[in-house]
Amino acid sequence: MAVAVAKRRQTRGLGNERVREALVGYGFIALPMAFFLLFFIVPVGYAVYISRYDWQIFKGPYVGFGNYRHLWHDSVFWTHAVRNTLVFTAFVVPLEVALGLALAVVVNQGIRFRGFFRAAFYFPSLAASAAIASIAIYILASDGLFNTVLNHLGYHHNNAWFTQESTALPSIIGLNAWTTSGTIMIFYLAGLQAIPTDVYEAAAIDGAGAWRTFWKVTFPLLKPAHFFVLVTSVIGALQMFDQAFLIGGASGGPNYSTMTMVLYLYNQSIKNISFGYGAAIGVVLFLFLFTVTLIQRLLFGKPEVA
Amino acid sequence: MDTEQLPPVAAAEQLAHEGEAAKGTPAATGIPGRERGERIRTAIAYVVMFGVAALFFIPFLWSVSTSFRTLADTVAGFSLLPKHWTLSGYREAFHTFNFGQYTLNSFIIAGAITISNLFLASLGGYAFARLKFPGREALFLLVLGTLMIPDQLRLVPIYLMLVNWIPSWVAHLGWHNASFINRNGVIGIQLVSAASLFLMRQYFLTIPRDLEEAAKLDGAGYFKTYRKVMLPLAGPAIAAVTILTFQGAWNGLFWAAILLQDKSQYTIPIGLANFHFAYQTLWPPLMAASVLAILPVLVLFIIFQRYFVAGVAASGVKG
């Protein structure tokens, strides 16, 4: 009965109803779309526009590609920011991926307190980077916990790890690998759980040990997860800002040893108030990241977990 | 040994062939080997887990321990627990170094961003999932496309837009542009995220249509259907968006570092960043403030752990 009534109503006002539904739809998405337009789409064009001007505190004369030429000859950018970022990425990605994968495999086993361990390994990824960095600064201080332990082990080290030019970046690499491995563990867990158990049974029947099963069965079957994790962690590492800013400050000290590309962008735009130059760095960074993503897509296809 | 050098796929194929060859061996020899392998694997797993868990926990425990120490205690040689328990670290952090204000600011910013994300993402997600309108797919692709635009590219234009484009009548309401953009700027540019919207839409797509049709027959309008039928059914997605957004906003550093110039509007992360450069080795208040920064997220995480993991997996899978 009710269905019949509804049908009659529907046929009568079909055209109206469709228009109404569309209008309501536009109404519901109006605010989010306006927001995305204003704070995502417009800034892309505006960034390119700003980058063509000598724009300090106020908008100055049009300089064409002047800011880009300046960047091309900017030795701090190339010899410190770019170099540090590439070194950071080259070391932190293998470290965090290996650690994340190992943790995922371990907490995927049928052992007690599994939930607790998962939580414990994941938590550093969730805690505020500022708090983690403060704790790390404290532990790696000259008379901090880490040096105390080293001294007890007979290895005497009395310098703060973050304030020495030679140890600052490696320390940040270690810190970042620690805090990102939890997220990577979660990604790998999703991949691991998508592997059917009969594959393992087959391997066990064939007498393959745990180590062998991992390398010959699990690892290759995680291929989709590997791609996803690699793409995500490479892009993330190239955009590193938090730890560099928190530990080295806006100037990437000591002596630019913790200066990264994004930190340099921050330094030039906000500290130096060179908006035109900062915008140019932003555009170049975007093109660089876009190219890296594109290359990864071409090499591995679209990343997807399981 | 030589198989180590083979690419993974080839190795898997070879493993299959070895299986063929091993068919003739009696099953009895295979099973003890498997049991031993499993026992060893479990034992290794336990050792690794306890070792790594200890490494993961020591920094946090050490910071909590220090937050209850006196300053003199932190330089008086190693001790696991404070020699004299004191709350002075927290008192100093709260009053002397303004972390009480910063905590409040963090709650205001993270709270406002979370509420706005929940509303805009669920309303938009409902429209993208259920309502038919021309250009729906293209517009949704546009939303997802914003995930490709990195914050670095947006830094300068957004800063200048906020400083220069805010109409003067806003400033006349008693805010100077410079101080107006601080907290309001951080909130304003994070009102909704493509990830929240995506999560809500995906969840709405899984809800069966019957209930909406029933509501429609009862004469409920679209907004009423959204509020009375869809939202109550979207609990897990709402939980995931809430905690992920809150956690991201609470921890947020990048935009806060750019937009928060006014000291009275600092969040805890910015307060921590500045504290370390200004006061170097005043460890107890620094650790107390770090504990403050971690605590709300820890509580959220303990209560809603499964939503964290589900949310990360969901937003990570196709984001």
Q: Which CATH architecture of the largest domain in chain B?
A: Orthogonal Bundle
- The 3D shape of chain B can be described as globular
Which homologous superfamily in CATH is the superfamily of the largest domain in chain B?
A: MetI-like
Please identify the structural class of chain A as seen in this structure.
Answer: mainly alpha
Number of domains of chain A: 2
| Global shape of chain A | globular
Q: How many discrete domains of chain B?
A: 2
SSE order of chain B, one letter for each helix or strand:
HHHHHHHHHHHHHHHHH
Commentary on this structure:
By secondary structure, chain A is mostly helical. The mean pLDDT of chain A is 88. The longest helix of chain B is centred in the N-terminal third of the chain and has 41 residues. The N terminus of chain B is likely disordered. Chains A and B meet through helix 2, helix 4, helix 5, helix 6 and helix 8 of A and helix 1, helix 2, helix 5, helix 6 and helix 7 of B.
Keywords:
heterodimer, A: 306 residues, mainly alpha, MetI-like fold, 2 domains, 0% strand, B: 319 residues, 17 helices, globular, disordered N terminus
Secondary structure: elements and pairs:
The complex is a heterodimer of chains A (306) and B (319).
Chain A: H1 2-12, H2 14-50, H3 66-72, H4 75-107, H5 114-126, H6 129-139, H7 145-152, H8 165-193, H9 197-205, H10 210-221, H11 223-238, H12 242-248, H13 261-271, H14 275-300
Helix pairs in contact in A: 2-14, 3-14, 4-8, 4-11, 4-13, 5-8, 6-12, 8-11, 8-12, 11-14, 13-14
Chain B: H1 8-21, H2 27-67, H3 71-74, H4 88-96, H5 99-130, H6 136-145, H7 151-164, H8 168-172, H9 177-188, H10 194-206, H11 210-217, H12 222-233, H13 235-251, H14 254-259, H15 268-279, H16 283-303, H17 305-318
Helix pairs in contact in B: 2-16, 4-16, 5-9, 5-10, 5-13, 10-13, 11-12, 13-16, 13-17, 15-16
